[in-house]
Amino acid sequence: MTVEMRPERRPNSPLFSSGPCAKRPGWSLEKLEDACLGRSHRSGEGKAKLKAVIDKHRALLGIPDDYKIGIVPGSDTGAVEMALWSMLGARPVTMLAWESFGSGWATDVVKQLKLKEAEVVTAPYGEIPDLAAIDWTRDVVFTWNGTTSGVRVPNGDWISETREGLAICDATSAVFAMDMPWDKLDVVTWSWQKVLGGEAAHGMLVLSPRAVERLENYTPAWPLPKVFRMTKGGKLIDGIFKGETINTPSMLAVEDVLDALDWAETIGGGKGMIERTDANAKVISDWVKKSNWADYLAADPLIRSTTSVCLKITDDWFTALSAEDQPKAAKALVTLLEKEGAALDIGHYRDAPAGLRIWAGATVEKSDLEALMPWLDWGYAQLKETFQK
To answer: Quick check: do 39-265 and 269-388 share a fold?
Structure first.
């Protein structure tokens, strides 16, 4: 595409941020008029709405009846930390990290919990460790989808059905976008702000019966803050998993996620959400196949994310730039597209290689991604011409 070929059509919504993510199509503040505001979250109405969030998640995602589902503080981060601080230490643990959040969990376990039998297995951005080599006599902590690297685990086949350790999975940008093999997972966490396009600050925590058994039969050597405590007197605090939250939730955010869950139901539930995500990801894939300057950060198609799609710039002009100038050039492209109203917040994560990161989750309209692709080509042509002058 030449510099002169400015696209005629912009996306109706330029919101392609990887978190918080775009609201569902047709969303408006009017959808929150029934929020339980000015009332206690422990009132009958408040508890009913919180329990509805749990029940709708179970139904839409097909979470087994004997798994516990809780709403916890601190978004996905809080949910992951609750699991790490409450359950680890009972047996050796393997931390898998191929992007920044997985690396963060590894740091917490090694430097904060200071577990002596913690093994950290890493891979560079765009790659994934050898999953077939994982020892399932140990607890294993991993992200299902690396939001900052565009790398996901291909499936759950690598998780042992006879595992002795717990499979602890940060799935915040995977749930509602990818098939989750619940029988292979013992702890699963996510937040409302990702694929559902909900508001931040609240996390979801799912526990298998094996995870509950760990909680009820193991006491960590370190003290737990109140917001992490899930047991009392050696028994699970069951109310947490019925909508009786540990701390006060935002009932406005609760109403918002209920609206998102209702919308998900109208498009075919969890399956419909996955289909929308896959269709969105295909728009980008089809464009990449034709591009002469961009490619996926993840070379292997089996491990490419369908939500947080991370792209690298492969043009010789760009790769010849210094390590210092490449991020500057990528940022200049992002800034140009933002000024044009074509795309907001599609820059690479600060620790990742320079490039673009485009959210393609279910709340994004396929037509908006189709409109965005020509703008990427136009913007890059503008960028290249500017830098070469």
So the answer is: no
| 243-280 burial: b if 16+ Cβ within 10 Å, else e | bbbbeebbbebbbbbbbbbebbeeeebbebbbebbeeb
What band does 387 get if pLDDT is binned at 50, 70 and 90?
confident
For the chain, domain boundaries: 39-265, 269-388
Q: With 60 as the cut, is the pLDDT of residue 3 above it?
A: no
Peptide bond preceding 20: is omega within 30 degrees of 0, i.e. cis? yes
Tally the residues of the chain.
389
Report yes or no on whether pTM surpasses 0.85: yes
Note the pLDDT of residue 4: 54
Angle at 152 between CA 207 and CA 18, to 5 degrees: 90
CATH number of 39-265: 3.40.640.10
pLDDT for position 1: 42
Cα gap 285→296, rounded to integer Å: 9
3-state secondary structure 99-123: CHHHHHHHHHHHHHCCCCCEEEEEC
Picking from 206, 208, 237, the residue whose alpha carbon sits closest to that of residue 60 is: 206
pLDDT in tens, 200-241: 999 999 999 999 999 999 999 999 999 999 999 999 999 999
Q: Would you state the CATH architecture of domain 269-388?
A: Alpha-Beta Complex (3.90)
**Residue 388 has what pLDDT?**
75
Mean pLDDT (whole number) for 49-57? 98
